[in-house]
Design brief:
- The protein is mostly helical and 182 residues long.
- The chain has one domain: YP_001051499.1 fold like.
- Helix 2 runs antiparallel to helix 3 and helix 5 packs antiparallel against helix 6.
């Protein structure tokens, strides 16, 4: 899997899939801190709209980027570890929005590394080897499935229809966080 060789749309789709997969991390953080996750959810939905070819104007995305910057949690302001996975999710989302606005941005490898590093850190804290971790294997499997799908000859709209539920992975994040639907 060579992410740097993907085109801009494919890289954006890959990053968006990882954002979707890890959104429960951000939702749990918001729930614990009494924050509203909906503004970020709406931004991620706008990214999916763009990927489907349904977004009519990029001006709205510029506003979304400004709003998103204010939503990224600062680890210095919170005592719980959950701020880090929450921050990762919104940094990846920010990168996705920036990639919509600037087609030269291709952060798929960086976003993949960000989420894999956080998962690796969590596994280390739990004294679990990657080779023995179901979460690690699920992450690698999901990345491979997403890569296979985005490099297939499927239309963008059909691809996104498949990609969203695939990325949601039954509502379980890469860290194993699962929240009931509200």
């Amino acid at each position: 899997m060579v992410l740097s060789q993907l085109n801009q749309w494919q890289q954006l789709a890959f990053c968006s899939a990882l954002c979707e997969r890890n959104f429960p991390n951000y939702q749990l953080f918001c729930e614990l801190e009494g924050l509203d996750a909906q503004p970020s959810r709406k931004i991620l939905n706008k990214v999916w709209e763009y990927l489907r070819g349904q977004l009519k104007s990029l001006k709205n995305m510029e506003k979304q980027l400004e709003q998103l910057t204010d939503l990224i949690p600062n680890p210095d302001e919170y005592e719980q570890y959950g701020v880090y996975p929450a921050m990762d999710t919104l940094l990846a989302l920010q990168s996705s929005v920036q990639a919509i606005l600037d087609s030269s941005i291709g952060d798929a490898e960086n976003i993949q590394s960000l989420f894999q590093s956080r998962l690796s850190e969590v596994l280390e804290m739990q004294n679990i080897e990657k080779s023995e971790s179901e979460l690690w294997q699920r992450q690698l499997d999901l990345e491979a499935q997403v890569y296979e799908l985005i490099t297939s000859k499927t239309s963008h709209a059909d691809m996104v229809k498949t990609l969203i539920p695939m990325s949601q992975d039954g509502g379980v994040s890469s860290l194993g966080i699962c929240l009931e639907d509200e």
